């Protein structure tokens, strides 16, 4: 198990993980947030939220000096301290939002698929779907490389939609509340791997990675990191993380930020 003063990098999901599923509070996790900050451990927000949403949260969490991963891994933002001549401030993995929307509109017209995405509705409807305020919903609609969907059709049509998207170079990822459409080469696991490699190159030493998440869209992240915390979630989805020798995965008995703290207590030894 790593010590807090070892070379560490931590990737965390937000909704249902660091943030409470119901009120979006991170207060129960604050003691660990303070410990990580004092030890200069990078805490990388890794979420389905948009860049606009994450930027506001980063400020509130005092993490603006760290990178973040948005839209389920489709977008990586690098702060000045992480940028190089080769790396721009924003790294897009996969398809652009305008191309995703065009493909979805074309497929719906062609096959009469029954779904609605954020690009089809108003901020008021997104607020109803998510429990966010309308102002927060507007931030959630500022998308760059993925589209959340609500599916209303049957299973057969859904399987057909998946095949059609695959032919367009797109894939579906299951989130806590929505299906997310993005490029096939985008995902939390791919983004975590890319950012971990960049950090190791900067440090010049081996770095242990910890990932924390509660939903199916976190699985690729949890299977990429060295130590995975599967936070108990308010859903019925299976979370089959490949745990290697069995000691690298911890499943919490608590939800949200309480489970988040429980996971770090399990894996990180205080010096």
Automatic annotation (TrEMBL):
GO terms for cellular component: cytosol. SUPFAM superfamilies: HAD-like. InterPro entries: HAD-like_sf, HAD-SF-IIB-MPGP, HAD-SF_hydro_IIB, HAD_sf. CDD domains: HAD_Pase. It comes from the Bacteria. GO terms for molecular function: magnesium ion binding; mannosyl-3-phosphoglycerate phosphatase activity. Its EC number is 3.1.3.70. GO terms for biological process: mannosylglycerate biosynthetic process. Keywords: Hydrolase, Magnesium, Metal-binding. This is Mannosyl-3-phosphoglycerate phosphatase-related protein.
